[in-house]
């Protein structure tokens, strides 16, 4: 017989206290202001000896460095929690601190630094700062756990739109659809998912205590700022707490959304006009859509509260085949590096000839963009050599059954084609796919790779469509195993 479920919530403020490098774009960005605080929301679930610790962070992704530091600090505070069962996902805001340590061996945008001398809080210090606060919040949630119940439901909201389009020659692009390129437009590349999964938690008196909001939407409405911000989730949390209780905890999960964005590809002028008529910013508009979706589901959930649901948490490491690179991929990367090297050296010469340029705001952007794009292409060359001795990469997966629903995590920006496969084949009544529970590199669909473009080219994909399919198959197997038991 199942043991009544124990539930605990907490949150931490992980806003940096000094300037940091902001993650999520090619050029380096130093934070110039704090627009709104960054949060880490923690939910603890326990039934008998089984437990899960779910953490959502306002971050672009969750590096292994940050994950491991959180787990280590939690173990230093308490040994009651199995640190392997702490699962951490990101909202994918592009206005949060970089939490990846620079490692030239891995390639990628941030590997090897920025190409110019810049002063900011080192990534290692931010990881220490944030992980300490998150570990304290995990401990607080663990200590506060009490008997309660859960209920769940589903709905719809337009929060993510496909950001990839294909021209008449079959060439795909991410963004870049304007008046000129519209003459070449053929079609939007893939599907859009507007589904919302909601899990609500209640105390023993059936008072609402928190929600998990799971949807294929990333927090990128104002992602290019030189600022610290939770993006959409700042206004969304405020609106949800205004409607459903100021003490409501809100844990966000991004479902499979590797090619989706909150931004409009077309009808932009129409959208802006409607925002003006409503008197809202883009972020406020998304806050209303999110809150309206919750309002459409939540009133019906108290009639189906479960206090002792089946509860099982699996943690697995799956080896995925690397994206197999060719000599042509390497040659293409080298050609791009030559062009970028020329741009980078030109920018350095400008700075050498006129040191006063460093007094100008954001003087470092052109040089750092060229340098970091070189690192991006250098990653192709390094991975080509690595694949000769290492043909797979490990991925940590969490599969959590809670009654008739399941949570299935992955570390990637996982394209929607794979997410739909998993949902269709899952025996769960509702399947909460959780991407970005890790480092966040793209796993593109086969049709996206055929079209090319950012997000679906060798430099973007450490794992290719073959690995994406292996991940889908393995995820389905793990979910089904929870129902067989």
Descriptive notes:
By secondary structure, the chain is α+β, with helices and mostly antiparallel strands. The protein folds into two domains: 6-320 and 392-484, no CATH class; 325-382. The chain contains ten helices and 21 strands. It has helices at residues 64-77, 123-144, 232-244, 268-278, 282-297, 327-353, 365-386, 416-425, 446-451, 465-484; strands at residues 6-13, 22-23, 39-47, 50-57, 86-90, 96-97, 146-156, 161-162, 164-167, 172-174, 185-188, 195-203, 208-215, 249-254, 260-261, 311-321, 392-402, 405-409, 413-414, 430-434, 442-443. The chain has an eight-stranded mixed beta sheet with strand order 5-4-3-1-7-12-13-14, with helices on both faces. Strand 17 (392-402) and strand 18 (405-409) form a beta hairpin. Helix 1 packs across helix 2. The protein is globular and about 70 Å long.
Question: What's a quick, concise take on this entry?
Answer:
With 485 residues, this protein is α+β, with helices and mostly antiparallel strands.
Please summarize the sheet with the most strands.
Answer: 8 strands, mixed
Number of helices: 10
Rg from alpha-carbon coordinates: 22 Å
- The neighbouring-strand order within the major sheet is 5-4-3-1-7-12-13-14
| Percent of residues in β-strands | 15-25%
Give the terminus-to-terminus CA distance. 14 Å
Helix-strand category: alpha+beta
**Overall pLDDT level:** 96
Q: Could you give the count of β-strands?
A: 21
Number of domains: 2
Shape: globular
């Amino acid at each position: 017989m199942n043991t009544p479920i124990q539930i605990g919530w907490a949150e931490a403020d992980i806003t940096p206290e000094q300037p940091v490098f902001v993650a999520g774009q090619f050029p380096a960005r130093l934070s110039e202001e704090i627009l709104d605080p960054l949060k880490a929301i923690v939910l603890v679930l326990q039934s008998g000896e089984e437990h899960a610790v779910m953490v959502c962070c306002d971050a672009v992704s969750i590096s292994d460095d940050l994950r491991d530091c959180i787990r280590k600090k939690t173990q230093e505070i308490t040994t009651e929690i199995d640190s392997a069962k702490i699962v951490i996902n990101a909202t994918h805001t592009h206005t949060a601190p970089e939490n990846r340590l620079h490692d030239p061996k891995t390639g990628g945008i941030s590997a090897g630094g920025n190409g110019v001398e810049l002063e900011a809080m080192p990534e290692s210090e931010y990881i220490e700062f944030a992980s300490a606060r998150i570990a304290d919040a995990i401990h607080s949630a663990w200590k506060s756990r009490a008997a309660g119940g859960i209920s769940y439901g589903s709905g719809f909201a337009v929060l993510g739109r496909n950001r990839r389009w294909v021209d008449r020659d079959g060439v795909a692009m991410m963004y870049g659809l304007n008046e000129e390129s519209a003459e070449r437009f053929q079609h939007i590349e893939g599907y859009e998912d507007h589904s919302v999964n909601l899990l609500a938690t209640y105390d023993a008196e059936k008072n609402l205590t928190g929600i998990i909001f799971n949807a294929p939407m990333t927090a990128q409405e104002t992602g290019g700022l030189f600022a610290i911000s939770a993006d959409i989730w700042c206004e969304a949390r405020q609106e949800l707490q205004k409607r459903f209780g100021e003490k409501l905890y809100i844990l966000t999960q991004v479902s499979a959304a590797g090619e989706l964005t909150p931004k409009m590809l077309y009808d932009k002028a129409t959208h802006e006009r409607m925002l003006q008529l409503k008197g809202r910013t883009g972020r406020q508009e998304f806050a209303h859509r999110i809150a309206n979706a919750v309002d459409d589901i939540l009133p019906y959930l108290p009639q189906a509260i479960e206090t002792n649901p089946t509860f099982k948490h699996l943690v697995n490491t799956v080896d995925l085949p690397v994206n197999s690179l060719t000599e042509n991929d390497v040659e293409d990367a080298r050609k791009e590096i030559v062009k970028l090297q020329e741009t980078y050296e030109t920018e350095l010469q400008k700075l050498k000839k006129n040191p006063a340029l460093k007094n100008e705001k954001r003087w470092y952007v052109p040089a750092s963009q060229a340098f970091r794009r070189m690192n991006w292409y250098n990653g192709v060359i390094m991975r080509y050599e690595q694949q000769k001795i290492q043909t797979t990469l490990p991925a940590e997966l969490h599969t959590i059954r809670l009654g008739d629903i399941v949570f299935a995590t992955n570390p990637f920006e996982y394209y929607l084609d794979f997410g739909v496969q998993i949902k269709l084949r899952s025996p769960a009544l509702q399947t909460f796919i959780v991407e970005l529970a890790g480092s966040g590199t793209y796993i593109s669909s086969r049709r996206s790779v055929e079209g090319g473009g950012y997000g679906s080219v060798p430099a973007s994909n450490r794992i290719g469509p073959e690995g994406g399919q292996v991940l889908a198959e393995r995820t389905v197997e793990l979910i089904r195993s929870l129902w067989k038991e």
